[in-house]
Automatic annotation (TrEMBL):
One Pfam entry name: Na_sulph_symp
GO biological process: transmembrane transport
Keywords: Membrane, Transmembrane, Transmembrane helix, Transport
Record flagged with keyword Transmembrane: yes
Organism: Branchiostoma floridae
Residues annotated as transmembrane: 15-35, 47-74, 94-111, 289-311, 354-374, 394-415, 454-474, 486-503, 515-534, 540-562, 574-593
Full protein name: Solute carrier family 13 member 5-like isoform X1
Length: 634
């Protein structure tokens, strides 16, 4: 039967990206044209650019990094900002902090330090499913704090797959991966590569591989009973093994998303939050590595532990908190005699002994963390009013976190990757000419592995936030949001975090943060609460994307392996979203208040307000203190 030509509607749908790209600016063009001759022309122009970028980012009609370049065109053409001022945002201090962190991540990946850490952690906890899941989640979250969560997931999934190949035979099926057919007194083997059940009906017939999840055996007149017997015997252990496999894979992408929230360089939205706060409120103390870590790391740990318990409950059939009270529980935690353990041991042994290059990278990484933590110790004030820290010996305010990370990154381009072999280090029998060892980092490795699209995407977010402020759009939004000042701040934070978390299921968390954070900073000022009270939890919520494969690259990587269905991810991810949002809201309303001084409306905002309270009380936040002006006077 001949098929007809596709309808014009179907032909147009195949070009939907081009249609959205071309029609969006045209449909929105009345906005800047109508207000062109009024005093709100800049506001309308800024809104026009923001809406276009929001549509392009949400629909991904262009690559995300390409859309991030639009401010270089739109803002100068629309008269919002000059090109010089727009382009500065693409390599400002926050973006250079990201570049420095990425350079360190390249060094870690180049010398396989991340893989050694991952395998060592798994060997420590063992391969008993619940402890294996904890080990995988812990090391994935830790690595995602410092390197790309995409790269972390891409490394961890093959390791988990190798372990699962053995666990499917040891845990999910009968011993040795075989099922006994008691009726015929014979053994039914399992295919080692596919994990499929192989059945033999006679010596002359070929072996048939049947899926573990849905055993559908071809029946004949003489083997109906045999097939039913085998199916009834295999199905429970097969389903159990399949659930364990799904849980061990899903825990990787979930831990990568959660772990990235703990540090300022862990994921791009965190950097966007720090820069947006500095852009909207230039007089604010800003968000540095330590202040972010002190709030986000405990939140991450609690969320990770609850995620582990939830995944156990759903996929490993454990209904209580695991313990080592029983002798059996302690003995199975680190079973070193299983084939799965040997797979991990073999991969770890293939890395060889701890190399000189790995030691160099690890030591530089440790020094960098110390430099970040002890740069400005705000809790220790000296006699002259300055905070203690190693930056005390430099001009105040000149040295930032990016200075520290580039000090270490530049050292990696010089430090040799093996011990020197000259003078006293040269052996008497070594006749080869002395030559310098290659450095830990070289530019060819940086060009190959550094994700420049992340740098451009961050720059686009910074330029967008700056344009919102310069155009006056932020002040206009502040006036519009003043009607919400009667709502309790606690309720507003909860609504904002839920909205951000479910929005980022359908769009990039970086673009979501770039669009919403300037608006939330303005909203906080309008309703008279501390801007960080909305911006910090909203930023972390943008990484809580657990429901859909398209939500984050880690989700997509795990889904691409074919074992996970979209329903499995949505079912477990929905509950995990709610759990993590609950943890986040409790955190910001408890220890987040004294950490960021959220109980007081800050004097460094750009407007006036008659509020100081932004705590967890449900009392409206505009009834406590007299007006605070921009300079802090009453």
């Amino acid at each position: 039967m001949a098929t007809g030509k596709p309808s014009p509607a179907k032909n147009m749908l195949s070009f939907w990206r081009s249609i959205v790209f071309l029609t969006t600016p045209v449909i929105l063009c009345p906005l800047p044209i109508y207000y062109a001759s009024t005093e709100n022309s800049k506001i309308a122009a800024g809104a026009y650019a923001v809406i276009i970028m929001a549509v392009y980012w949400a629909t991904e009609v262009l690559p995300l990094a390409v859309t991030a370049l639009l401010p270089i065109v739109l803002f100068p053409v629309l008269g919002v900002q000059s090109s010089n001022h727009v382009c500065i945002n693409y390599f400002n201090d926050s973006n250079m902090l990201t570049v420095g962190g990425l350079l360190l991540a390249v060094a870690i990946e180049r010398w396989n330090l991340h893989k050694r850490i991952a395998l060592r952690a798994i060997l420590t906890v063992g391969v008993e499913p619940r402890w294996l899941m904890l080990g995988i989640m812990s090391v994935t979250a830790f690595l995602s704090m410092w390197i790309s969560n995409t790269a972390t997931t891409a490394m961890m999934v093959p390791i988990a797959q190798a372990i699962l190949t053995e666990l499917l035979k040891e845990k999910g099926m009968k011993p040795e991966g075989q099922v006994e057919d008691k009726k015929q007194n014979r053994i039914m083997p399992l295919d080692e590569n596919t994990g499929l059940l192989s059945t033999t009906t006679s010596k002359n017939e070929q072996i048939q591989a049947l899926p573990l999840k849905n055993i559908a055996m071809e029946k004949s007149d003489h083997d109906d009973d045999e097939a039913e017997l085998i199916a009834d015997q295999v199905r429970p252990s097969v389903e159990q093994a399949d659930k364990k496999a799904k849980g061990l894979l899903l825990c990787i992408c979930y831990a990568a998303n959660i772990g990235g929230t703990a540090t300022l360089i862990g994921t791009p939205p965190n950097i966007i939050a720090a820069q947006t706060a500095q852009t909207l409120f230039p007089k604010s103390p800003g968000i540095d590595f330590v202040s972010w870590f002190c709030f986000a790391f405990p939140t991450m740990v609690v969320a990770l532990l609850l995620a582990w318990l939830w995944l156990q409950r759903q996929f490993l059939d454990y209904s209580c908190v695991p313990s080592c009270i029983s002798r059996r529980g302690c003995s199975t935690r680190r079973n070193q005699n299983t084939a799965a353990y040997e797979v991990v041991r073999r991969q770890y042994d293939e890395l060889g002994p701890f190399s000189f290059a790995e030691l160099v990278v690890l030591s530089h990484f440790a020094v960098l963390v110390l430099l970040w933590f002890f740069r400005d110790m705000a809790f220790i004030h000296l006699e002259n009013g300055r905070a203690a820290g190693w930056t005390y010996f430099f001009v105040q305010g000149y040295v930032t976190d990016s200075s520290a990370v580039f000090l270490i990154a530049l050292a990696l381009f010089v430090w040799p990757s093996r011990p020197p072999s000259f003078l006293c280090r040269r052996g008497n029998k070594d006749l080869r000419p002395s030559e310098p060892a290659p450095p830990i980092l070289d530019w060819s490795a940086v060009e190959e592995k550094l994700p420049w699209e992340v740098v451009i995407l961050l720059g686009g977010g910074f330029a967008l936030a700056d344009g919102v402020k310069v155009s006056g759009l932020s002040e206009w939004l502040a006036q519009g949001f003043r009607g919400m000042d009667g709502f309790p701040p606690l309720v507003i934070v909860f609504i904002v975090t839920v909205m951000i978390a479910f929005t980022t299921e359908f769009s990039s968390n970086t673009s979501t943060a770039a669009i919403f954070l300037p608006i939330l900073g303005t909203l906080a000022q309008a309703i008279c609460v501390h801007p960080y009270y909305l911006m910090v939890p909203a930023t972390i919520a943008s990484s809580f994307a657990f429901m859909l494969p398209v939500a984050t690259p880690p989700n997509a990587i795990v889904f691409s392996y074919g074992r996970i269905k979209a329903f499995d991810m949505a079912k477990s991810g929905f509950v995990l979203n709610l759990v993590c949002l609950l943890v986040l809201n409790v955190a910001i309303n408890t220890y987040g208040i004294p950490l960021y001084n959220l109980h007081q409306f800050p004097p460094w905002t750009t407007g006036t307000c008659n509020v100081t309270t932004a705590g967890p009380s449900v009392t409206p936040a505009n009834i406590t203190t007299p007006t605070l002006l921009t300079n802090g006077t009453r």
